[in-house]
Amino acid sequence: MLGLFKDTPVIGRASAIVKGPSNQVFNFIGVDLMVNYPRWSPEVKVLEKLTDGPIGLSTVCRQIRIDQGNRSESTFKVKVFDLGSRICFEGVSNPYRCDYLIESLNAIDSKVTFVFELLSLDLHVRPFEKLVRIAVQEGTERTVNNIRKLIEADLVASKQRDS
Fold it and tell me: In CATH, what class is 10-162?
């Protein structure tokens, strides 16, 4: 019976090939997080940086989200900021982790892998763990697809401006 109350992380993982060099993909996700995060995750209604300076290691942000009609507020901190390859943030006020891995495949293609970990579930949500797992996986897939579409659309728009 005690096993029912053990915290088991809920993990979603998804990848996409993006038409864009890895530094451009990283900048979209990491350097320009404040502009682009609400674009790829429209559930984010408010995003504010609580620390000074550019996005980087130890940056702290606060967000307000509306997910499936439910409002939530959380604070997160950038735990990994490896230029060109990885940005990871962890919830400070809530137990979650968002990890974005960027791999260069060639001069024009990159692979983005997004891993979302819900590190524990509130007691009242645990009976719905299977549904939560499905929602988390669907959310990670939607996230990488949104990132891919936005980066590729920005690249097309940039080329049109240049010509």
Answer: alpha beta
